[in-house]
Write a structure and sequence with these properties.
4 copies of one chain form a homotetramer. Chain A is of the alpha+beta class and 409 residues long. Chain A has 6 helices and 22 strands. Chains A, B, C, D: Pfam families: FmdA_AmdA (PF03069).
Amino acid sequence: MPETLIKVDLAQSPYDNENVHNRWHPDIPMAAWVKPGADFILETYDWTGGAIKNDDSAEDVRDVDLTTVHFLSGPVGVEGAEPGDLLVVDLLDLGPKADSLWGFNGFFSRQNGGGFLTEHFPHAQKSIWDFSGIYTQSRHVPGVNFAGLIHPGLIGCLPDKKLLDTWNEREVDFIATAPERVPPLANPPFAATAHMGKLTGDAKAAAAAEGARTVPPREHGGNCDIKDLSRGARVFFPVYVAGGGLSVGDLHFSQGDGEITFCGAIEMAGWVHMRVSLIKGGVAKYGIKNPIFKPSPLVPNYKDFLIFEGISVDEHGAQHYLDVHVAYRQACLNAIEYLKKFGYTGAQAYSLLGTAPVQGHISGVVDIPNACATLWLPTEIFAFDINPGAHGPSLYVQGDTDLPIAYDK
Amino acid sequence: MPETLIKVDLAQSPYDNENVHNRWHPDIPMAAWVKPGADFILETYDWTGGAIKNDDSAEDVRDVDLTTVHFLSGPVGVEGAEPGDLLVVDLLDLGPKADSLWGFNGFFSRQNGGGFLTEHFPHAQKSIWDFSGIYTQSRHVPGVNFAGLIHPGLIGCLPDKKLLDTWNEREVDFIATAPERVPPLANPPFAATAHMGKLTGDAKAAAAAEGARTVPPREHGGNCDIKDLSRGARVFFPVYVAGGGLSVGDLHFSQGDGEITFCGAIEMAGWVHMRVSLIKGGVAKYGIKNPIFKPSPLVPNYKDFLIFEGISVDEHGAQHYLDVHVAYRQACLNAIEYLKKFGYTGAQAYSLLGTAPVQGHISGVVDIPNACATLWLPTEIFAFDINPGAHGPSLYVQGDTDLPIAYDK
Amino acid sequence: MPETLIKVDLAQSPYDNENVHNRWHPDIPMAAWVKPGADFILETYDWTGGAIKNDDSAEDVRDVDLTTVHFLSGPVGVEGAEPGDLLVVDLLDLGPKADSLWGFNGFFSRQNGGGFLTEHFPHAQKSIWDFSGIYTQSRHVPGVNFAGLIHPGLIGCLPDKKLLDTWNEREVDFIATAPERVPPLANPPFAATAHMGKLTGDAKAAAAAEGARTVPPREHGGNCDIKDLSRGARVFFPVYVAGGGLSVGDLHFSQGDGEITFCGAIEMAGWVHMRVSLIKGGVAKYGIKNPIFKPSPLVPNYKDFLIFEGISVDEHGAQHYLDVHVAYRQACLNAIEYLKKFGYTGAQAYSLLGTAPVQGHISGVVDIPNACATLWLPTEIFAFDINPGAHGPSLYVQGDTDLPIAYDK
Amino acid sequence: MPETLIKVDLAQSPYDNENVHNRWHPDIPMAAWVKPGADFILETYDWTGGAIKNDDSAEDVRDVDLTTVHFLSGPVGVEGAEPGDLLVVDLLDLGPKADSLWGFNGFFSRQNGGGFLTEHFPHAQKSIWDFSGIYTQSRHVPGVNFAGLIHPGLIGCLPDKKLLDTWNEREVDFIATAPERVPPLANPPFAATAHMGKLTGDAKAAAAAEGARTVPPREHGGNCDIKDLSRGARVFFPVYVAGGGLSVGDLHFSQGDGEITFCGAIEMAGWVHMRVSLIKGGVAKYGIKNPIFKPSPLVPNYKDFLIFEGISVDEHGAQHYLDVHVAYRQACLNAIEYLKKFGYTGAQAYSLLGTAPVQGHISGVVDIPNACATLWLPTEIFAFDINPGAHGPSLYVQGDTDLPIAYDK
């Protein structure tokens, strides 16, 4: 049996677990060391460290303190790893904690993080998803059942000081261009809620003051929320510090491309079984800037899709130049309108797009002035026929359920 | 045998073919009428109407007059189609013209259209792709061979006057925000090179003066450049005018997501065999704004990919807010750098990303401030192993070929 | 455009086309020669040479002279091919003749060939399938529409004299073990209806007297009826004579595993575009006895199946020892009974299993005394839901159609 | 968390676990009862109940007492299930026991069970496969690594007395046709080693005397060894006795079609998480004789294959009439010869065909006198390129490993 290098106790605060951290900083001590070729298990909290409960109230989503996220397990040091190497990570398997076979999805209040469609869904809402083996379903979103494309939303190696400084400078300067914006343009370092693993005292204080927040994906990978980084995948990470320092967290049972609901995919506590090895000098050899990866041979094979197009003209008729973000947003809104014809509420439809193995494709990005994006909705996950036909849609979902909502205080 | 409703003669100018047009306008007369349930064939020019030749010079790409494109075959009227219906189009099959078994890909000069990576590839370049049954390969991009994902880059119904006015107003206003920009923000109506099908005289002049350019995708579909709209797919188009008025053109033998090279995919003259039917009142019944579609059961099944990540920090280090366009651009640049390690020139790599069945996925669009996009490069199309390994890359491509280039005059 | 080396005129008897033959013999002269690396097109008759018509009578199926089949196009000589080489054949594309967009499927009378289920379907019956681009449907088998998995039922190289003698000896000896059996155990050489290509006079008579019949698959490949040898596939054939002598015919628009209906798949006249090359000495290098092949990246991607099990206890309760033939027969009978619950006649169901992209898997062959085989029926080809459910089946097919039947005279 | 209804302790003899049985008989008491809709977990021994060890000796395979197998967990009664119903079983997930992350494959001695190729591999041999998350590899078969297609080899409901009598009569009569055969034609009831679950005393003795052996697949399913009955699949079983009485065992981490090595696939101890429901009267409604099933959306997606053909002429040149068993045997032998060219021993190659996700397809079963079968070998599971090419094969496997062998005493 592979060794579990890091354990987490869901009844304990993640701040009390010294093998967990919630900021990126080169000074965070390795939680454990392994040799190249080793395989091992890391347990993880859900990204909020247990702030969201399996109940029917969205108040926890409304009130969550987003300065505390994401709680990552690690860093793991790999003997012999040096800056410029590629750290090869095989995600041999991963899953939910056996004592926690459920996950959550939600939309943050516009006042506290928002989301991709926060103009349309400005209040905190939540759905709970139960796991039955490889499948999941929700009491808040009836009529669907699908196999999970389990993956870590967040994984990567520690930055070195130079890269950290680049991040902080880049993002703090960016915030300064619109400091009053809600939600903000980016999140600056914030020492008060920083958890720096085994660091204590002054060293901790110093690192906490400049530790990069974990929210955005960056050069090292990080919070990429790539659903296809699933169990069985192989990832090649740039190494910046001696030992690499691999950390992982934010496990998802399933997610649609874009993680549009932000809070988030189907978020869960879980474990990752991985093997590590090295390509010495691989960064230069292969010209690597961001991580690259190979997908798993074992992913849910949904192949019948209903595909929604969107272009970069927003819902108010305004023109945006080759803007894929706007185009995908339109495709999402189009899909939501469609799903409402079958009885779903808007919130249920939005939640579905954030959780199901929906694909978001970039279709055309050169046909001025409009980008085109497509949203691929798998039809096989529905308990009824959602294809269009001469008969028109039927109200398969009867309107007696919806996502709990919590209005801003 | 299905009837060929529209024929094109590649030796003839498309301007001399009255069943072809290159603008969108409700007054363009139907080229032919069919009944619901009918299947028929439309032949098409390549999108430039023959301006690009099967040779080893890029001067034609440099000099092409982009006010002439795209030459579409149609419009086809469907009896009984009324505004608010959905026109169901089955793309039963499509292919290259039997006397023209090749296609082209190219990058426009930055002075004449540009492209997704025009800062890095500012000059006109071209590659020619030969078709061998279901496969294609290029004398300008060695080491690859792949099955075509044949599709129309451009297909849709005629707009009504109100929709046309919306387009023109929206885009002309937009151009006005940066009228000197090169390339321009959008393309306004341009009567001089308009081809309005069977319209003649004053009616033609009036329509040409306000006919919408065919470049962008819009609410009716149009130039979506969705590679997955492939032979065997079923598309549901909103109908705006009596009869629908379906036109099609810009056929591609293959294309990567984004059609990043702009000129374009693997562009070809060809034919489309389609069947049409109607869902009466389908626009309201299903809440349709843009077309929706179902993919084909018969598409190239490449499944082993090398996946490149990109984030919305551009190559100069500048931060962009959740900008998928920038993120995909970075993923493309990352892939090009990688391919160069195997001996490809940058232009060859860029061309490959524009032509091969590369997927562009939207991965994370909520993790402020960075969007994350992924580019999926199928590994099976290469004649050699492009996976990373401890050995490092080998120079499989020997540098004795490249894309022809034509510098600005 | 690739050259069409062999043309066939469907209005002409195949006996009048000297580039066609219906027996295997090393003395058949090459119809054409090509160089390694060449690609070219061969047109083919349907396997019966036009004996079966697009009409609603099964009399042609009843009366067909099975000593005349299969009419093959070739042999094509490849310069430099020597015995012991592997001839690599890329099936670049293939399709129906443009003037013949239909195919037939049928069951032979038990008195004239029979079929896999001839005890249950002892009379000649026929269904006609129309092609609509990549799709096919039949007026005799309503409720289904599917994409063709187009392939040659029969392809291979000429045997040398030694191999030919082995075949004849083996099969004639075998017939002698039950010479009166109906249908016979095998088919011996039969000069009267032999067509030996360009051979004439005494040479023809001599070869016709010993030319092997084309019915069975043998060491060289031949009539393997492997549906997965589809367009885009690459096949490696053993070479026995100088030049190889590649012949092809018996094209199928689609077929279920086993070609259980025998007459046959969806049989059609068509064309094959192929490229040939050589692996010198490949037979010994790779230890090859029968052909090997790699499937195409481009095949219909049906993936939702209803799977029927069968074991090697026959429908009369008799036990057979690890007999996969019997097990698959039971799986087929089980599927037919199931389909009848939805309104299909037995003949329609049988025809469907012979034509649709049904898979036949060998499941267990060691669990004495029963073999287990499975029949995989793709659910997506049906216009209605054929899955089992608490509601029970509905009569989607109304019983107003059936296959034409022709009783023995 | 789902309840574990049946636990097994690998340190305890299965004979001491009253929720396990190794014969089929209607009198075996239910180990547990559940309601329709319930989901629950059953743990299982490996099929031999622990007789085969994780070591490098094949003596245990040589000496195993095959009258003891298979040890099944169950039967589970479903409230309300009546004869004639269909029991719907969702295989929600399954896996190896956490304290036993390995499996075995082997060939029995010809004197003790034999196997598909026992003439070529007459002695007991064994390979051990270690599990690393979703992947497996073996110290005895180097150069391969693949994702498991985890499934139960054996699952089904209890027969009623009438069906049991049919089995016993059929098989005992069959044995009588060649009573001295080695290996035997079938296995008769054998009381001495029967384990009848909770039955004791006279009732046990009576049931043991007539309890059907678990080796063959039969009408109820049973030992079908269908690799595609994998986690995520839904199976519909005929019910013969009140409560159904579902039992399961013989779990496989992976298996090739045919389970040709007989001992067996990659055999493991494990657990099955399943949900049960009923279709009342479903047997008659759907005309069901054997179980039917729908495959999982989540199976290893290997798609690049090297495909070997075999025909029903055996390796001694003897002709067999449309015999798929012989044809598949030839395809297997052809694949083994091919693999030996890359350095594998015959035993390694044979083991690989029994364990990897190899497909066995029935290709042609009507082309007298030869059946054609194909063996599909996934190329992606190899650490090297096994495709044929002009270069010829290289000895990637160096011959320093092989399967342990144990000669008959």
